[in-house]
Write a structure and sequence with these properties.
alpha/beta; Rossmann fold; 2 domains; six-stranded parallel beta sheet; globular; shikimate 3-dehydrogenase (NADP+) activity; amino-acid biosynthesis
Amino acid sequence: MTQAPALLHYAVIGNPVAHSRSPQIHTMFAAQTGIALRYERLPAALDGFRDTVRRFFHDGGQGLNVTVPFKLEAFELASQHLSARARVAGAVNTLSWRDGTLHGCNTDGVGLVSDLQRLGARLMGARVLLVGAGGAARGVLQPLADAGCATIRVVNRSPGRATELLDGARASGLSCPAELQAGGLPEASRPGGWDVVINATASSLQDQAPALPSSLYAPDALAYDMMYGARPTAFMRQAQADGAARCADGLGMLVGQAAESFYLWHGVRPDPSPVLMTLRTELLAEG
């Protein structure tokens, strides 16, 4: 009797990880593309990330998505084979085992840019305000620059952290023809407003918006929150009250970064649209 070939094995690793939608997303991508795989949630102890990763790949795993709080550890673990995006981001969210070695990439920024484009944002020549100076902000700098943004200003409650973020990204190889600026939250305003304002903080998890000044938005501007939920986030409500023409949350970014990981692993680009529609419907039903 011929034994069926083992399914390709993938997982998302984090702590906590029970809430992750990645298994559902990648299973839908696999159905689209006709790829037989198994994708699961892989919890790791806070002090057990490296051992869990090594065991996963030793047992035949092909790829891992990495979520909080392990993206920096994943960066260190794959430090010998990092993509340019991962080096600039200073973090890894996608691990691959190829040719007997571990490779690290960061697909968060690509996921953001693809969703902004899906929403109709014109990024070529755009003036972009990036709120927050943590890993989420740094991870999207290079893809925003690659998309042709003319100005990217990073603002943060602590202005020094915004400056440090840009300095760190430049030192890691950031290639950016855009004008890069850094400042505090009160320095978020600019004459004529911003074309795109991105909340890269976790403020919406506490149902709070960053302490931003008013009159931030240019005509037809888009306000984008990396967080997502069943209802508009606090940042989205703040932006709408301040005159943003369009507001969106980060569910599409989640699907977009997963699509890029899927492409890195399989060489096939799935269609994010039906997956996003399914997740949005489920999220609304949950809320």
